Amino acid sequence: MTVPTIRGVIRRNLLIVFLVALFVGGGGFYLLLKHEAMNNAEDEARLLLSSAMAIRGYTTQHILPNFVKMHDDAFHEETVPAFAAQTVFRSVSAGDHAYTYREAALNPTSVSDRADPFEVELIREFRNDAQMKEMHGVLDQAGQRLFYLARPIQIKDPKCIICHDTPQRAPKLMVAKYGPNNGFGWKVNDIVGVQLLTVPVTKQFRSTLELVSILIGGLALIFAVAYFALTAAMEATVSGPLDRLANAADRASRSTSETPELPSSGAREIRLLADAIQRLRISLMKALSHIGEKK
Fold first, then answer.
1. 89, 216, 226, 237: most buried, per Cβ within 10 A?
2. Residue 256, C-beta contacts closer than 8 angstroms, at least 6 positions apart
3. Which of 260, 278, 269 has its CA nearest to residue 241?
4. Does residue 247 carry a pLDDT above 90?
5. Residue 288 to residue 271: CA distance in whole angstroms
6. DSSP state of 114
7. Which residues does residue 198 pair with via DSSP β-bridges, in sequence order?
8. For residue 189, is it left (φ>0), alpha (ψ between -120 and 50) or beta?
9. Of 104, 79, 291, which Cα lies nearest the Cα of 191?
10. Which residues contact 30 (CB under 8 A, 6 or more apart)?
11. Chain-centre distance of CA 18, in angstroms?
């Protein structure tokens, strides 16, 4: 079994400490930046979703009543809160398609609002847990990472059932436009769809990785300089003098005729030990000489 040297132990322990510090420092910094990016994305998503909800509320309170007063039998999509909110949001986010707002349903009036597989899964989770009012997370879509914020669409106003109960009760012009097979059979308190808003986080995550890479590179450089500086100092003050001291003590133990050279440099403790060995050797030589004279 090979016995490790002090030099090897010191270098190994320094490398272990530096690698652990590099891993913990880089990982902790990455988690911190990622958490901050997620918080910023969530704040942005909530602000945009609040804007969409404001558009819905304005449509319900101000646009729809004015059309009702006109006693116009025509069906106007502009009076539908979901249509108004999604249309305005598409206009605002026209420059970046990663920003989306959808009100998707399992059985929508307009086929363009039919839920995709991911939205179907969200609706299922909301139905399975009636107490859950919101979900958020990150999804990969078309090569981009998107933060999503989802809320259930639940029928609470009985007035909505007029358009979504049966084709017979719905406005005739609405049925004529969308057909009698879509958007019917809804019940009060049913969760029929999901409001889903997404904001891009690809750039934020990429920036996080870049910053972490810069940090790890800087730490690695600092650690490399510190490692070589510390090992050189330990070699000059501890490892080297100890090696010379060990070799001198070994030679002295094997022969009384040879006068080994003990190290006079290094740490204070090394010099004190060398002086002590030298005094011990002189005392031993005197004792041996005294014994020889008596014989």
1. 89
2. 285, 288
3. 269
4. no
5. 26
6. B
7. 100, 148
8. left
9. 104
10. 208, 209, 212
11. 23
